[in-house]
Amino acid sequence: MHRTQVEPGIWLVELDRPERLNAISEELLEDLHAQLRWLAEDLQAQASCRVVVLTGRGRGFCAGLDLQQRDGDPLGPLERPAQQRMRLQKRIAALVTGIRALPQPVIAAVNGPAAGGGLALALASDVRIAGESARFGDAFVRIGLSGCDIGVSWLLPRLIGASRAFELLLTGRVIDAAEADRIGLVSRVVPDGELLAAALDVARSITANSPFGVRMTKDVMWSQLETGSMAAGIAMENSTQIATTFTEDQREALAAFLAKRPAEFTDR
């Protein structure tokens, strides 16, 4: 796992098992949890990191859980006692809630396969940009498991609609970048060589806005997916919108807009 500050306010987090298409081993799982903890809890991290770009090194974004038996491990992930399987299941699923809980928006730059757990990481991100080689699939049902796993069955219908989500989860069909774009799973498709640049362009557009305003936007957008009525959703909007009017950054943003100059935010 690699974490790099590529520009002020923008950090690149790379899954780093390219020889396995960044399939999730237990070591990679714990490394990614450590990165999420740092981003969520460390005040220095929150001051220096306003947007995260998540991607995979090599030819793949993430091929899901690594099911192959490893040296020194007598049992594969699906051959262990039920208690161990449940612990691993919950630990992987916690990545999804961890990404959602980050104060920073996460942009998934999807290169190559995003399968199973890799699909879940992409769905949990706030923005998805695909390279032309990207492939998206949930093959759990094709290996005798339920297609509903680690948040995918909650996230996917909310992103592309229930009808398409049912078909993809019931068949285990893999879709290419063009279809992902057509059904609204990703916001755009770019040539593979331009993927990181495209993700950084979106990140810069986000960091051009006030830090508190961005955090409130992420919080409210995710919360609206769980809100039971429009009235409750509007009430939440009203509260957070008024809260932003008390910040110095809001006054700076308005002054910069009227003066037609870039704003200088201090997160106060």
Description:
This protein is an alpha/beta fold. Helix content is 48%, strand content 16%. The protein has helices spanning 26-41, 43-48, 82-101, 117-124, 152-160, 162-171, 177-182, 195-207, 211-224, 230-244, 248-259; strands at residues 2-7, 9-15, 49-56, 106-110, 113-115, 127-131, 135-137, 175-176, 188-190. A hairpin with a 1-residue loop joins strand 1 (2-7) and strand 2 (9-15). Helix 3 (82-101) packs parallel to helix 4 (117-124) and helix 9 (211-224) runs antiparallel to helix 10 (230-244). The radius of gyration is 19 Å and the shape is globular. The relative contact order is 0.11. The mean pLDDT is 94.
In short:
The chain has 268 residues and is α/β, with parallel strands linked by helices. The protein has helices at residues 26-41, 43-48, 82-101, 117-124, 152-160, 162-171, 177-182, 195-207, 211-224, 230-244, 248-259; strands at residues 2-7, 9-15, 49-56, 106-110, 113-115, 127-131, 135-137, 175-176, 188-190.
Which descriptors would you attach to this protein?
single chain, 268 residues, alpha/beta, 2-enoyl-CoA Hydratase, Chain A, domain 1, Lyase 2-enoyl-coa Hydratase, Chain  A, domain 2, 2 domains, six-stranded mixed sheet, three-stranded mixed sheet, 48% helix
Rg on CA atoms, Å: 19 Å
Low-confidence stretches: none
Structural class based on helices, strands and sheet pairing: alpha/beta
Measured distance between first and last alpha carbons: 32 Å
Please identify which CATH superfamily of the largest domain we are dealing with: 2-enoyl-CoA Hydratase, Chain A, domain 1
Number of strands: 9
Q: Which strands sit side by side, in order, in the main sheet?
A: 1-2-3-4-6-9
- The helix count comes to 11
